[in-house]
Amino acid sequence: MTKKGCRDWEPTLGLGANARIAQRTKKENASSTGQLMMDKSEKIFVAGHRGMVGSALVRRLKSEGFSNLLVRDRSKLDLKNAVTEFFAQEKPALVILAAAKVGGIKANNDFPVEFLLENLRIQNNVIQAAYENGARKLLFLGSSCIYPKFAPQPIPETALLSGPLEPTNEAYAIAKIAGIKLCQAYAREYGANFISVMPTNLYGPNDNFDLETSHVLAALLRKAHEAKMRKDRKLIVWGSGKPSREFLHVDDLASACLLLLEKYDSSEIINVGCGEDVSIRELAELICEVVGFDGDLAWDATKPDGTPRKLLDVSKLRALGWKPSIPLRDGIARTYEWFLANCAR
Length: 345
Ligand code: GFB
What we know:
Blueprint: H1 15-33, E1 44-47, H2 52-63, E2 69-70, H3 84-90, E3 94-97, H4 105-110, H5 112-132, E4 137-141, H6 170-190, E5 194-199, E6 201-203, H7 216-229, E7 234-238, E8 244-245, E9 247-249, H8 250-263, E10 270-272, E11 278-279, H9 280-291, E12 296-300, H10 315-318, H11 328-342
Helix pairs in contact: 1-8, 1-11, 2-8, 5-6, 7-9, 9-11
Bound molecules: guanosine-5'-diphosphate-beta-L-fucopyranose.
Guanosine-5'-diphosphate-beta-L-fucopyranose (GFB) binds near residues 201, 220, 280 and 304.
Protein backbone atom coordinates (compact mmCIF):
# COMPACT_ATOMS: atom_id res chain seq x y z
CA MET A 1 0.00 0.00 0.00
CA THR A 2 2.53 2.58 1.06
CA LYS A 3 4.52 4.90 -1.21
CA LYS A 4 8.18 4.94 -0.27
CA GLY A 5 7.59 8.17 1.69
CA CYS A 6 4.84 6.78 3.96
CA ARG A 7 6.04 6.43 7.63
CA ASP A 8 9.44 7.64 6.57
CA TRP A 9 8.24 11.05 5.57
CA GLU A 10 11.02 13.39 6.39
CA PRO A 11 12.33 14.94 3.70
CA THR A 12 11.34 12.88 0.60
CA LEU A 13 8.05 12.69 -1.25
CA GLY A 14 5.54 15.49 -0.92
CA LEU A 15 8.08 18.20 -0.17
CA GLY A 16 5.30 20.76 -0.62
CA ALA A 17 3.14 19.24 2.08
CA ASN A 18 6.07 18.61 4.42
CA ALA A 19 7.52 22.08 3.96
CA ARG A 20 4.09 23.55 4.76
CA ILE A 21 3.92 21.38 7.91
CA ALA A 22 7.38 22.61 9.04
CA GLN A 23 6.44 26.23 8.34
CA ARG A 24 3.19 25.85 10.32
CA THR A 25 5.06 24.22 13.19
CA LYS A 26 7.38 27.25 13.38
CA LYS A 27 4.42 29.68 13.49
CA GLU A 28 2.60 27.69 16.17
CA ASN A 29 5.73 27.56 18.25
CA ALA A 30 5.56 31.13 19.34
CA SER A 31 1.83 30.87 20.10
CA SER A 32 1.47 27.85 22.40
CA THR A 33 4.64 27.47 24.48
CA GLY A 34 5.95 31.05 24.64
CA GLN A 35 9.72 31.34 24.98
CA LEU A 36 11.40 28.12 26.18
CA MET A 37 14.28 28.81 28.56
CA MET A 38 15.92 25.37 28.34
CA ASP A 39 19.56 25.18 27.19
CA LYS A 40 19.14 24.38 23.48
CA SER A 41 22.56 22.70 23.30
CA GLU A 42 21.74 20.00 25.86
CA LYS A 43 21.84 16.47 24.46
CA ILE A 44 18.27 15.15 24.10
CA PHE A 45 17.65 11.47 23.26
CA VAL A 46 14.32 11.01 21.49
CA ALA A 47 13.56 7.28 21.68
CA GLY A 48 11.17 6.36 18.86
CA HIS A 49 12.01 9.32 16.61
CA ARG A 50 10.59 7.59 13.51
CA GLY A 51 7.11 7.12 14.90
CA MET A 52 4.22 9.60 14.72
CA VAL A 53 4.92 11.06 18.19
CA GLY A 54 8.72 10.86 18.00
CA SER A 55 8.89 12.55 14.59
CA ALA A 56 6.60 15.35 15.80
CA LEU A 57 8.87 15.88 18.80
CA VAL A 58 11.95 16.04 16.58
CA ARG A 59 10.21 18.54 14.28
CA ARG A 60 9.26 20.69 17.25
CA LEU A 61 12.65 20.53 18.98
CA LYS A 62 14.41 21.47 15.74
CA SER A 63 12.03 24.36 15.07
CA GLU A 64 12.67 25.61 18.63
CA GLY A 65 16.40 25.64 17.92
CA PHE A 66 17.47 22.56 19.88
CA SER A 67 20.73 21.61 18.23
CA ASN A 68 21.86 18.47 20.02
CA LEU A 69 19.29 15.78 19.25
CA LEU A 70 20.28 12.16 19.68
CA VAL A 71 18.29 9.61 17.61
CA ARG A 72 18.94 6.00 16.58
CA ASP A 73 17.15 3.79 14.07
CA ARG A 74 15.87 0.46 15.35
CA SER A 75 18.44 -1.24 13.06
CA LYS A 76 21.21 0.47 15.05
CA LEU A 77 19.67 0.33 18.53
CA ASP A 78 16.91 -2.15 19.42
CA LEU A 79 15.39 -0.76 22.62
CA LYS A 80 13.97 -4.19 23.45
CA ASN A 81 17.55 -5.30 24.12
CA ALA A 82 20.21 -3.84 26.40
CA VAL A 83 20.82 -0.12 25.86
CA THR A 84 23.36 0.45 28.66
CA GLU A 85 26.35 0.73 26.31
CA PHE A 86 24.60 3.35 24.20
CA PHE A 87 23.65 5.43 27.26
CA ALA A 88 27.12 5.04 28.82
CA GLN A 89 28.65 6.32 25.58
CA GLU A 90 26.20 9.11 24.77
CA LYS A 91 25.13 10.26 28.26
CA PRO A 92 22.01 12.20 27.15
CA ALA A 93 20.96 14.98 29.58
CA LEU A 94 17.30 14.64 28.65
CA VAL A 95 15.40 11.55 27.51
CA ILE A 96 12.00 11.50 25.81
CA LEU A 97 10.62 7.96 25.75
CA ALA A 98 8.29 8.00 22.73
CA ALA A 99 9.18 4.49 21.59
CA ALA A 100 6.48 1.87 22.10
CA LYS A 101 4.52 -0.87 20.41
CA VAL A 102 1.25 0.92 19.66
CA GLY A 103 -1.88 0.20 17.69
CA GLY A 104 -5.63 0.50 17.47
CA ILE A 105 -8.32 -1.49 19.23
CA LYS A 106 -8.00 -4.57 16.98
CA ALA A 107 -4.18 -4.82 17.20
CA ASN A 108 -4.32 -4.41 21.00
CA ASN A 109 -6.97 -7.10 21.23
CA ASP A 110 -5.20 -9.51 18.84
CA PHE A 111 -1.61 -9.23 20.21
CA PRO A 112 -1.72 -8.79 24.03
CA VAL A 113 1.56 -10.70 24.53
CA GLU A 114 3.55 -8.43 22.22
CA PHE A 115 1.89 -5.24 23.57
CA LEU A 116 2.75 -6.20 27.14
CA LEU A 117 6.19 -7.78 26.64
CA GLU A 118 7.69 -5.36 24.11
CA ASN A 119 6.54 -2.26 25.96
CA LEU A 120 7.78 -3.56 29.31
CA ARG A 121 11.16 -4.34 27.77
CA ILE A 122 11.53 -0.95 26.06
CA GLN A 123 10.46 0.97 29.15
CA ASN A 124 12.57 -0.98 31.67
CA ASN A 125 15.69 -0.72 29.49
CA VAL A 126 15.44 2.99 28.72
CA ILE A 127 14.25 4.20 32.15
CA GLN A 128 16.91 2.21 34.04
CA ALA A 129 19.74 3.22 31.68
CA ALA A 130 18.67 6.87 31.78
CA TYR A 131 18.94 6.88 35.57
CA GLU A 132 22.18 4.92 35.73
CA ASN A 133 23.83 7.28 33.23
CA GLY A 134 22.81 10.50 34.92
CA ALA A 135 20.02 11.86 32.72
CA ARG A 136 18.75 14.96 34.55
CA LYS A 137 15.20 14.46 33.30
CA LEU A 138 13.10 11.81 31.51
CA LEU A 139 9.65 12.22 29.96
CA PHE A 140 7.70 8.96 29.69
CA LEU A 141 4.70 8.85 27.35
CA GLY A 142 1.69 6.71 28.24
CA SER A 143 -1.91 6.77 26.97
CA SER A 144 -5.42 7.52 28.24
CA CYS A 145 -6.26 3.80 28.12
CA ILE A 146 -4.46 3.46 31.50
CA TYR A 147 -7.68 4.69 33.15
CA PRO A 148 -10.59 2.39 34.14
CA LYS A 149 -13.18 1.52 31.46
CA PHE A 150 -15.91 3.34 33.39
CA ALA A 151 -13.84 6.21 34.84
CA PRO A 152 -15.65 9.46 35.70
CA GLN A 153 -15.67 11.89 32.73
CA PRO A 154 -13.66 14.01 32.21
CA ILE A 155 -11.06 11.67 33.67
CA PRO A 156 -8.84 13.19 36.39
CA GLU A 157 -5.31 11.89 36.94
CA THR A 158 -6.48 10.57 40.32
CA ALA A 159 -8.68 7.97 38.58
CA LEU A 160 -5.60 5.80 37.91
CA LEU A 161 -6.00 2.26 39.35
CA SER A 162 -9.52 3.05 40.64
CA GLY A 163 -11.34 0.36 38.60
CA PRO A 164 -11.15 -2.41 35.97
CA LEU A 165 -9.49 -1.65 32.62
CA GLU A 166 -11.00 -1.96 29.13
CA PRO A 167 -10.31 -5.63 28.22
CA THR A 168 -9.29 -4.96 24.59
CA ASN A 169 -6.26 -2.90 25.72
CA GLU A 170 -5.59 -4.32 29.19
CA ALA A 171 -2.15 -5.68 28.26
CA TYR A 172 -0.92 -2.37 26.84
CA ALA A 173 -2.45 -0.41 29.74
CA ILE A 174 -0.75 -2.61 32.31
CA ALA A 175 2.59 -2.10 30.58
CA LYS A 176 2.11 1.68 30.58
CA ILE A 177 1.04 1.66 34.25
CA ALA A 178 4.21 -0.30 35.04
CA GLY A 179 6.21 2.40 33.27
CA ILE A 180 4.52 5.11 35.34
CA LYS A 181 5.21 3.21 38.53
CA LEU A 182 8.87 2.69 37.56
CA CYS A 183 9.31 6.44 36.95
CA GLN A 184 7.59 7.19 40.29
CA ALA A 185 9.77 4.60 42.06
CA TYR A 186 12.98 6.19 40.68
CA ALA A 187 11.67 9.58 41.81
CA ARG A 188 10.83 8.37 45.34
CA GLU A 189 13.87 6.14 45.91
CA TYR A 190 16.58 8.12 44.08
CA GLY A 191 15.05 11.58 43.54
CA ALA A 192 15.05 11.16 39.76
CA ASN A 193 13.14 13.86 37.82
CA PHE A 194 11.19 11.36 35.72
CA ILE A 195 7.77 12.63 34.60
CA SER A 196 4.84 10.68 33.05
CA VAL A 197 2.63 12.29 30.41
CA MET A 198 -0.74 10.72 29.49
CA PRO A 199 -1.98 11.84 26.05
CA THR A 200 -5.44 11.23 24.67
CA ASN A 201 -5.98 9.56 21.23
CA LEU A 202 -3.50 11.09 18.80
CA TYR A 203 -3.37 11.59 15.05
CA GLY A 204 -1.34 13.47 12.45
CA PRO A 205 1.58 13.18 9.99
CA ASN A 206 3.34 9.82 9.96
CA ASP A 207 0.42 7.99 11.56
CA ASN A 208 -0.01 4.29 10.80
CA PHE A 209 -2.58 3.83 7.99
CA ASP A 210 -2.65 0.03 8.00
CA LEU A 211 -6.36 -0.92 8.22
CA GLU A 212 -5.81 -3.81 10.63
CA THR A 213 -3.44 -2.21 13.16
CA SER A 214 -4.18 1.54 12.95
CA HIS A 215 -6.27 3.81 15.14
CA VAL A 216 -9.72 4.98 14.08
CA LEU A 217 -8.91 8.41 12.61
CA ALA A 218 -6.14 7.18 10.28
CA ALA A 219 -8.20 4.13 9.29
CA LEU A 220 -11.32 6.14 8.42
CA LEU A 221 -9.28 8.75 6.53
CA ARG A 222 -7.76 6.05 4.31
CA LYS A 223 -11.05 4.14 3.96
CA ALA A 224 -12.99 7.28 3.00
CA HIS A 225 -10.33 8.27 0.47
CA GLU A 226 -10.26 4.83 -1.17
CA ALA A 227 -14.07 4.60 -1.16
CA LYS A 228 -14.20 7.97 -2.93
CA MET A 229 -11.62 6.86 -5.50
CA ARG A 230 -13.56 3.64 -6.14
CA LYS A 231 -16.88 5.56 -6.24
CA ASP A 232 -18.26 3.23 -3.52
CA ARG A 233 -21.72 4.01 -2.10
CA LYS A 234 -20.89 3.03 1.48
CA LEU A 235 -18.08 3.23 4.03
CA ILE A 236 -17.70 0.46 6.61
CA VAL A 237 -17.11 1.76 10.15
CA TRP A 238 -16.33 -0.62 13.03
CA GLY A 239 -18.65 -1.00 15.98
CA SER A 240 -21.81 0.99 16.70
CA GLY A 241 -20.52 4.52 16.21
CA LYS A 242 -21.70 5.39 19.75
CA PRO A 243 -18.38 5.49 21.65
CA SER A 244 -16.81 8.92 22.09
CA ARG A 245 -13.16 9.82 21.69
CA GLU A 246 -11.00 12.92 22.25
CA PHE A 247 -8.46 13.55 19.47
CA LEU A 248 -5.28 15.63 19.75
CA HIS A 249 -3.05 16.51 16.78
CA VAL A 250 0.44 15.17 17.39
CA ASP A 251 2.00 18.62 16.83
CA ASP A 252 -0.05 19.90 19.77
CA LEU A 253 1.20 17.01 21.87
CA ALA A 254 4.79 17.89 20.93
CA SER A 255 4.33 21.48 22.09
CA ALA A 256 2.77 20.31 25.37
CA CYS A 257 5.70 17.93 25.95
CA LEU A 258 8.25 20.73 25.52
CA LEU A 259 6.40 22.87 28.02
CA LEU A 260 6.29 19.95 30.50
CA LEU A 261 9.98 19.23 29.95
CA GLU A 262 10.64 22.81 30.92
CA LYS A 263 8.07 23.44 33.65
CA TYR A 264 6.82 20.16 35.16
CA ASP A 265 8.95 18.35 37.77
CA SER A 266 6.41 16.19 39.61
CA SER A 267 6.31 12.39 39.40
CA GLU A 268 2.50 12.59 39.48
CA ILE A 269 1.04 11.74 36.04
CA ILE A 270 -0.37 14.59 33.93
CA ASN A 271 -3.03 14.38 31.20
CA VAL A 272 -2.62 15.97 27.76
CA GLY A 273 -5.70 16.52 25.63
CA CYS A 274 -7.85 19.17 23.99
CA GLY A 275 -10.76 18.81 26.43
CA GLU A 276 -13.40 17.97 23.80
CA ASP A 277 -14.62 14.68 22.34
CA VAL A 278 -16.80 13.46 19.47
CA SER A 279 -18.71 10.24 18.83
CA ILE A 280 -17.23 7.81 16.28
CA ARG A 281 -20.25 8.55 14.06
CA GLU A 282 -19.54 12.30 14.22
CA LEU A 283 -15.85 11.63 13.50
CA ALA A 284 -16.73 9.47 10.47
CA GLU A 285 -19.09 12.17 9.14
CA LEU A 286 -16.43 14.88 9.60
CA ILE A 287 -13.79 12.78 7.82
CA CYS A 288 -16.18 12.10 4.91
CA GLU A 289 -16.77 15.86 4.58
CA VAL A 290 -13.04 16.66 4.59
CA VAL A 291 -12.20 13.86 2.14
CA GLY A 292 -15.24 14.55 -0.06
CA PHE A 293 -16.86 11.10 0.20
CA ASP A 294 -20.67 11.44 -0.05
CA GLY A 295 -21.70 7.77 0.34
CA ASP A 296 -23.41 6.25 3.41
CA LEU A 297 -21.90 4.94 6.62
CA ALA A 298 -22.42 1.23 7.38
CA TRP A 299 -21.66 -0.33 10.77
CA ASP A 300 -19.67 -3.55 11.36
CA ALA A 301 -21.07 -4.78 14.65
CA THR A 302 -18.59 -7.69 14.70
CA LYS A 303 -15.86 -5.23 15.72
CA PRO A 304 -15.55 -4.06 19.37
CA ASP A 305 -16.62 -0.58 20.54
CA GLY A 306 -14.12 -0.63 23.41
CA THR A 307 -14.27 2.02 26.10
CA PRO A 308 -17.57 3.97 25.84
CA ARG A 309 -15.88 7.34 26.54
CA LYS A 310 -12.41 8.57 27.57
CA LEU A 311 -12.38 12.37 27.76
CA LEU A 312 -9.39 13.59 29.80
CA ASP A 313 -9.55 16.24 32.52
CA VAL A 314 -6.82 18.64 31.32
CA SER A 315 -7.20 21.33 33.98
CA LYS A 316 -3.77 20.52 35.48
CA LEU A 317 -2.05 21.15 32.13
CA ARG A 318 -4.16 24.26 31.46
CA ALA A 319 -3.01 25.63 34.82
CA LEU A 320 0.55 25.48 33.43
CA GLY A 321 -0.58 27.80 30.62
CA TRP A 322 -0.80 25.32 27.74
CA LYS A 323 -3.64 25.09 25.26
CA PRO A 324 -4.01 23.24 21.94
CA SER A 325 -3.78 25.21 18.68
CA ILE A 326 -5.07 22.73 16.07
CA PRO A 327 -8.87 22.28 15.89
CA LEU A 328 -10.05 18.79 14.85
CA ARG A 329 -11.34 19.72 11.39
CA ASP A 330 -8.08 21.56 10.54
CA GLY A 331 -6.04 18.70 11.91
CA ILE A 332 -7.94 16.17 9.82
CA ALA A 333 -7.53 18.33 6.68
CA ARG A 334 -3.78 18.63 7.29
CA THR A 335 -3.43 14.91 7.91
CA TYR A 336 -5.36 14.15 4.72
CA GLU A 337 -2.97 16.50 2.83
CA TRP A 338 -0.02 14.58 4.32
CA PHE A 339 -1.67 11.23 3.52
CA LEU A 340 -2.19 12.25 -0.12
CA ALA A 341 1.42 13.39 -0.40
CA ASN A 342 2.99 10.41 1.35
CA CYS A 343 0.72 7.37 1.29
CA ALA A 344 -2.20 7.50 -1.14
CA ARG A 345 -1.90 5.61 -4.40
O1 GFB B 1 -8.80 4.29 17.71
P1 GFB B 1 -9.24 2.94 18.15
O2 GFB B 1 -8.68 1.79 17.40
O3 GFB B 1 -8.84 2.73 19.67
O4 GFB B 1 -10.85 2.82 18.06
P2 GFB B 1 -9.47 2.96 21.13
C1 GFB B 1 -11.68 3.83 18.53
C2 GFB B 1 -13.12 3.50 18.20
O5 GFB B 1 -13.29 3.62 16.78
C3 GFB B 1 -13.58 2.08 18.55
C4 GFB B 1 -14.01 2.50 16.28
O6 GFB B 1 -14.89 2.12 19.06
C5 GFB B 1 -13.57 1.36 17.19
O7 GFB B 1 -14.48 0.28 17.11
N1 GFB B 1 -13.67 2.30 14.86
C6 GFB B 1 -14.56 2.44 13.85
C7 GFB B 1 -12.49 1.95 14.35
N2 GFB B 1 -13.98 2.15 12.67
C8 GFB B 1 -12.70 1.84 12.93
C9 GFB B 1 -11.59 1.44 12.10
O8 GFB B 1 -11.69 1.30 10.88
N3 GFB B 1 -10.40 1.22 12.73
C10 GFB B 1 -10.26 1.37 14.11
N4 GFB B 1 -9.05 1.16 14.64
N5 GFB B 1 -11.29 1.73 14.93
C11 GFB B 1 -6.98 2.42 21.76
C12 GFB B 1 -6.25 1.46 22.67
O9 GFB B 1 -8.35 2.26 22.03
O10 GFB B 1 -6.64 3.79 22.03
C13 GFB B 1 -4.76 1.72 22.57
O11 GFB B 1 -6.55 0.13 22.26
C14 GFB B 1 -4.42 3.18 22.80
O12 GFB B 1 -4.09 0.93 23.53
C15 GFB B 1 -5.25 4.03 21.84
O13 GFB B 1 -4.70 3.56 24.10
C16 GFB B 1 -5.00 5.51 22.04
O14 GFB B 1 -9.54 4.41 21.39
O15 GFB B 1 -10.73 2.20 21.29
